[in-house]
Amino acid sequence: MHELSVEDLSSETRPTWCGGCGNYPILIAVKKAIAQLGLDPDKVVIVSGIGCGSSFPHWVRTYGFHTIHGRPIPLASALKMANRELTVLVTAGDGDTYGIGANHFLHAMRRNLDITVLVQNNNIYGLTEGQASPTSELGKVTKSTPYGVVEAPLNPLAVALSAGATFVARAFSGNLQHLTEMVKAAIQHRGVALVDVLQPCVTFNPAYSYEFWRNRTYLPGQHDAQDIHAALRLALEEDRRALGVLYQVQKPTLLDMMPLPKEPGNLSRLMESFV
Amino acid sequence: MRENALCWRAGGQAGDGIMTVGQMFGRVCSRSGLHVCVSAEFPSLIRGGHNSVWVRVGGDSARAPLRGTDLLVALNRESIDRHAASLNPGAAVIFDPDHMEVRQEELPGKLLAPIPLESIARHDAGDKIYRNVVAVGATLGLLDFGRDTFREVLQSLFGRKGPEVIAANLAAAEQGYESGAQFSEQYPHRLRAQPAEKRMLLTGNHAIAMGALAAGCRFYSAYPMTPASELLHFLARVEREQGIVVRQSEDEIAALCMALGASHAGVRAMTGTSGGGFALMGEALSLAGMSETPVVVVVASRPGPSTGMPTWTAQGDLRFAAHAGHGEFPRFVIAPGDVGEAFSCTAHAFGLAEKYQAPAIVLSDRFLSMGWWSQPLFSGEGLVPERGKLADGALLQEMRSSFGRPLRYRESEDGVSPRWFPGTPGGAFSASGNEHDESGDTCDKVENRKRQMDKRLRKMAAAEKDIPPPQLFGDEDAELLLAGFGSTKMPALDALELLSERGIPAAYLHVSYLVPFKAEAVRRIISGRGLVVVEGNADGQLAGMIAEHTGIIARQRILKYDGRPFFPDEIAKEAERIGRTACTS
Questions:
Q1: What pTM was estimated for this model as a whole?
Q2: Quick check: A58 and B430 CB within 8 A?
Q3: Which of A214, A225, B338, B417 has minimal Cβ neighbours within 10 Å of its Cβ?
Q4: Strand runs (DSSP E) across B129-275, as ranges?
Q5: Residues 383 through 412 of chain B touching chain A, CB cutoff 8 Å
Q6: At what angle do helices A72-82 and A102-111 cross, to 10 degrees?
Q7: How does B229-252 read in b/e, with b if 16+ C-beta sit within 10 Å?
Q8: Using alpha carbons only, how large is chain B's radius of gyration in Å?
Q9: pLDDT tens-place string over residues A114-134
């Protein structure tokens, strides 16, 4: 078998995102990561929710499931439990993961199942044409907040860290090479991996442009990714956003604690116990 | 002397272990070849509040609890105050004279059996916790029945806990028996062991879980909710020996989505909840419909709306189950009528879900899910259903060469498209909750939408042939025809016997399979008869479905929505009244 290229992983249909959408680099990064890691695309499942970015699985030639808003995480989790040979990726937006699906997000972090959660975080609801998202900053004027957002934005990385995540990273879709490295590291991590991707929405959140994020993100020089306090310090920074793996530790995964189920047991014996 | 017909009742405070008392007594009867129905009443409290448990024992049948009591075990004074009115002529009351005063004048004509339960437990077994075992022993002594069988039951229940625990239990049982036996001569009821095939004593939830295991279910995800929680507890307990993965999810939305994920990966999967949790599952149920993912959802109803009465029973979710989820998509709704059907219908639900790649809802209720019945061992052989249409490598290859890619949602005559699972070489596709073309890609073109909708809905017509017809019981030609679904079957069949004793010919039409509805079969049976629909809800939801599908409106309805299951005599009485009115009007 020849080595996979990004083109081999492209589907027949082409993305319909706006020109300049921050999703394009994410799509390329995922394909590159799959190709560079030498994964068998038939053993990869990409599970998405609902949002502009959630058409993602249709545009990668792997298995996929385009689910409903907020729910890709539980569906993906059981896919992995049911077939441990699969590489399972969730691609969903900030509204999907940190809003409507926040409960699943929290529990996925503490469950430490070996899946990758890739969040297309553009700080806005794009598909529904521009309402505030859980990560929209205070004062942000959107269609649903004409007088400005009055609820403090959620800090997904800090939440993930405190919820027990074993891999927390941030990437920026304006830095494809770094983004690809983050996706690869996340897939390779044994346990749950969160990659929060800062992603411009050129149509409904133009203020958060590539340039905006380029000026507000940085790669920390010295950082001990095993130190949760150091990771939290970076996660809690307000004026700028650190990119890279903020935190990574090895802990037993959910599957380590769930023995592979045996063949179906003896039902007659079970019934006898009720006599 | 009345033989093998007994209504036993025990009452006490929540936390007194009343259910265990009922189960122990029930097991002794069941092991003795008698028919047993155990039903409990309890508030949604862990301690405090009044709990009571009924055990109805019969030689030929025991389907539903009766209102009268032949033997009352009062673990507190409140039990006497609450249940005195239900005491039948000749009834006896076992109570602990050290803890309460009961005067004969209060209970004229009833046999008082003061037995110092707690002091016997302390003195002979070494701990007052054995009081309940003493109480069961006393019950058996009074009935002159089951002494050795009780020992066996205690062995099988507590054998694992070591010889000391067993010895204490046996001592408590023995002394209890002796104390009860002193009153035996004055008591007119007797139970006698009779030859019978081996029987279990189990709940509807156990039967549903066993049906799922027999059908090859390997994944169960759920969030706790009465009365479905026991499915989670039981399956979790047998998880490792039975080779099933059981997960408690963060909520019911996740519970169903997890089941869908496991199913999509090729594993037979189920979730279970009650009405409130099922409300949260609506969107994912619709996803199952659109993505054509097989799944079994158990809905064990309790009285709503909202939190309602969490520990009581209702049949108020029939319409909800039939219509849950937005949009139109094929589904199955099956409401088993007893523990036997709970087993077989659940196993069948897996078969239907897989064959037609659609959600199948098993609709139970608190009465069936948490009541205990004696039941011969299920035959678990040959119940693992066929997987339905599966695509192999050759078919995937053929589709790739004809269409450029495999078509997961390919057009077919019966609407069912071959499926395959992630990991299959050369089969990459995306399942979708969006309207999609045959390949799974999002597509909202007019022609495609219509084709895919028609394809999915066609599955329901194709499934008709796999739906068993409704069952008719009793006097098949009787003018008076009762009809019901789900657990109403049990009190309704008992009611038929009562009516027959009174010389009133009657039949009962039992509908377990509600969606799709066997309209023609139901119409044939009900046409031209005095139809009385019996349901545990306020709306007459089955009556509504019958009207919708057959055009026949059942104006006579016996509806009950007070949280209690139907009592056979109330159905019989009401049916008799309706029958008489209908004849004279």
A1: 0.97
A2: yes
A3: A214
A4: 189-190, 199-203, 219-222, 245-248, 269-273
A5: 404-405
A6: 30
A7: bbbbebbeebbeebbbbbbebbbb
A8: 26
A9: 999 999 999 999 999 999 999
